[in-house]
Amino acid sequence: MTNIEATELDISVRVQQVPFAMDEGYESVLHQRSDIGAIVTFTGLVRDFNETPDVTGLTLEHYPGMTERTLIQIGEQACQRWELQAVRIVHRVGDLAPGDPIVRVLVASAHRREAFQACDFIMDYLKTQAPFWKKEHSRHGAYWVQERHADHQDAARW
Amino acid sequence: MQLTHLNTRGEANMVDVGDKRETRREAVASGRIVMQPKTLQLLTDNALPKGDVLATARIAGIQAAKRTHELIPLCHALALSKVAVDFDVDHANGCVHVSALCRLDGRTGVEMEALTAVSVACLTLYDMCKAVDKEMYIEAVQLDSKRGGVRGDYQRGLPEPIVTGGSAVGEVRLGERCASPCVRVKFLAELREQIEESDMSIGLDQLPSRDVAGLKAALNAQDARFGVLSDQRTLCAINQVMANDSARLTDEDEVAFFPPVTGG
């Protein structure tokens, strides 16, 4: 498991094999402060259908070092665009099963609009920039997931 | 996977670590000695004939770690920067859990030192208690975790990671040093499977031009399977920063090729 924090801005990112808690990040963000008005979180899960209808599992590979740095940079970009108080990103790697959480993004802000938009932005950038690769396992064999044009269009909105 | 302690003729062989880069190495090992409840009670009450059992076993474990090379034939003598031996007296299971941490800034792993520390600490516990209990047994001596080194980190219980490379957070792994100026090349995810190679290095003097395009050309000349690197979809990063064909390469650069990302 790796864990790095950016200085000044309250950003922390983590890449790990083990599962994360559904309330991951709340405590560290809310600890001893009451100026936060909104927390928006996104949790991505493994679907049992994607490129084929019967996905039985997923293997996630990443590029250690570059992954964490990219996630920190995405968090920093979000902080430049919106008034944010904290960003937490946790992404799992290794073998995952349908229903397993893969990724969690938490954004804290004084107001909800910033938090909603920043969370959306972070996911769009994460999907198109962070060096993760998915290999899906289905009853008919395993294959590497192809990038989706729609994800790049989504990221180009910002 | 090759056994590094055997040479090409299958004979025992001490590994030459002179060319390895010094890195922070750390290993944690553990084991336990199972004993009768009343022996354990005597141990906690400090009422055994030979005196302070745990303090003695701790010193024994630390000493043993430092002398591992005298016991294990092909181990190097290491200047350990830290050895810590800890005990957890477990009355519920009638045993003492022993763990040892060894640390070193050097060129070889320290797992043998940690395992030796645990083993000798357990043996010392046995020796200190054997007057009152002959039924004791030592079990589950194992490596729990290992950090640093070219083969990456290990943590018992975690499935073999599917991750590529072994860089610690925020740093670029340089791996084994080349004799002459070279770049290290990595192929990730689907590309690794297509090329059937994950890591290689290539001398800078073999590149027609000292940039990414030159690297691709040199690899292509070596083998047709590298043709996929010229695919428009293939991405490239130098020292973990995205780069294009005209990006310059210098000695010790880490160049990674990979397909479009699909995380999230």
TrEMBL record, chain A:
<keyword id="KW-0808">Transferase</keyword>
<keyword id="KW-0501">Molybdenum cofactor biosynthesis</keyword>
<comment type="subunit">
    <text>Heterotetramer of 2 MoaD subunits and 2 MoaE subunits. Also stable as homodimer. The enzyme changes between these two forms during catalysis.</text>
</comment>
<comment type="pathway">
    <text>Cofactor biosynthesis; molybdopterin biosynthesis.</text>
</comment>
<dbReference type="Pfam" id="PF02391">
    <property type="entry name" value="MoaE"/>
</dbReference>
<dbReference type="GO" id="GO:0030366">
    <property type="term" value="F:molybdopterin synthase activity"/>
</dbReference>
<protein>
    <recommendedName>
        <fullName>Molybdopterin synthase catalytic subunit</fullName>
        <ecNumber>2.8.1.12</ecNumber>
    </recommendedName>
</protein>
<dbReference type="InterPro" id="IPR036563">
    <property type="entry name" value="MoaE_sf"/>
</dbReference>
<dbReference type="InterPro" id="IPR003448">
    <property type="entry name" value="Mopterin_biosynth_MoaE"/>
</dbReference>
<comment type="similarity">
    <text>Belongs to the MoaE family.</text>
</comment>
<dbReference type="GO" id="GO:0006777">
    <property type="term" value="P:Mo-molybdopterin cofactor biosynthetic process"/>
</dbReference>
From TrEMBL, chain B:
<keyword id="KW-0501">Molybdenum cofactor biosynthesis</keyword>
<feature type="domain" description="Molybdopterin cofactor biosynthesis C (MoaC)">
    <location>
        <begin position="14"/>
        <end position="149"/>
    </location>
</feature>
<dbReference type="GO" id="GO:0061799">
    <property type="term" value="F:cyclic pyranopterin monophosphate synthase activity"/>
</dbReference>
<dbReference type="Pfam" id="PF01967">
    <property type="entry name" value="MoaC"/>
</dbReference>
<comment type="subunit">
    <text>Homohexamer; trimer of dimers.</text>
</comment>
<comment type="function">
    <text>Catalyzes the conversion of (8S)-3',8-cyclo-7,8-dihydroguanosine 5'-triphosphate to cyclic pyranopterin monophosphate (cPMP).</text>
</comment>
<comment type="similarity">
    <text>Belongs to the MoaC family.</text>
</comment>
<keyword id="KW-0456">Lyase</keyword>
<feature type="binding site">
    <location>
        <begin position="112"/>
        <end position="113"/>
    </location>
    <ligand>
        <name>substrate</name>
    </ligand>
</feature>
<feature type="active site">
    <location>
        <position position="127"/>
    </location>
</feature>
<feature type="binding site">
    <location>
        <begin position="74"/>
        <end position="76"/>
    </location>
    <ligand>
        <name>substrate</name>
    </ligand>
</feature>
<comment type="pathway">
    <text>Cofactor biosynthesis; molybdopterin biosynthesis.</text>
</comment>
<dbReference type="InterPro" id="IPR003749">
    <property type="entry name" value="ThiS/MoaD-like"/>
</dbReference>
<dbReference type="Pfam" id="PF02597">
    <property type="entry name" value="ThiS"/>
</dbReference>
<dbReference type="InterPro" id="IPR012675">
    <property type="entry name" value="Beta-grasp_dom_sf"/>
</dbReference>
<dbReference type="InterPro" id="IPR047594">
    <property type="entry name" value="MoaC_bact/euk"/>
</dbReference>
<dbReference type="InterPro" id="IPR023045">
    <property type="entry name" value="MoaC"/>
</dbReference>
<dbReference type="InterPro" id="IPR036522">
    <property type="entry name" value="MoaC_sf"/>
</dbReference>
<protein>
    <recommendedName>
        <fullName>Cyclic pyranopterin monophosphate synthase</fullName>
        <ecNumber>4.6.1.17</ecNumber>
    </recommendedName>
</protein>
<dbReference type="InterPro" id="IPR050105">
    <property type="entry name" value="MoCo_biosynth_MoaA/MoaC"/>
</dbReference>
<dbReference type="InterPro" id="IPR002820">
    <property type="entry name" value="Mopterin_CF_biosynth-C_dom"/>
</dbReference>
<dbReference type="InterPro" id="IPR016155">
    <property type="entry name" value="Mopterin_synth/thiamin_S_b"/>
</dbReference>
